[in-house]
Design goal:
- The chain is an alpha+beta fold.
- Helices cover 16% and strands 37% of the residues.
- It is built from 3 helices and 15 strands.
- The strands form 4 sheets. The protein has a 6-stranded antiparallel beta sheet with strand order 3-2-8-5-6-7. Strands 9-10-15-14 form a 4-stranded antiparallel beta sheet, covered by helices on one side.
- A hairpin with a 3-residue loop joins β9 and β10.
- α1 crosses α2.
- The longest helix has 20 residues.
- It is globular and about 60 Å long.
- The N and C termini lie far apart (39 Å).
- The relative contact order is 0.16.
- The mean pLDDT is 93.
Length: 238
Amino acid sequence: MTALLFRDDAELKSCEATVIAINERGGIVLDRTVFYATAGGQPGDKGRVIWNGSETVIATTIYDESKNVVHVPAGTGALPPIGATVTAELDWASRNRNMRAHTMMHLLCASVPFPVTGGAIGEDGGRIDFDIPEGQIPDKAELASRINRLITEDHPVSYRWITDQEMAENQHLIRTMSVKPPMGSGSVRLVMIGENGKVDLQPCGGTHAKSTAAIGPVAVAKIENKGRINRRIRLVFA
């Protein structure tokens, strides 16, 4: 299994690694990586893999059926040989935008106290779908004001790990109705925004900014009815 360096330090922009496999589609598997693989509504990272003066542009990063992290090449050029030492280097502008957007989604989740039915991060922000009863849909202006206040208050973002057993005993921390935190490895990572998670505390494997101020100002672009139980709230960078 690939060691996921971003779980401990999402600010790492590159790392040295060893190629441990090339799959049948040309995907590159490394022993360690700073690249985040598509999951939980967050897109996979882009960047490049560099070796011996050559490079392979990485279009995205995904998990395969065995949960290996696969760096997907953008084209059909040369690939590093198995066993080669390479440098895995992020497209930092893309990663930084995703970290800011993911942290913004946590603030949205903390500001709308209803179960989450889905979500995704895009180029200009992100959206979350909530199960909100009729008559309790938030006001756009009030919601934007609350989230921007949390951003300007510059709350720190930190992490702590709990055991699978502790996670099982604290189901109230799980906000999503359809996606459950990955369990089975023995531990689950909690994301804490604010001191001891006073702003938001929930299991999450994504990448985040170091503090809420890094997000920058945001706007509530739209609140939509997307079905019987779905109310979609979309935030964008202002």
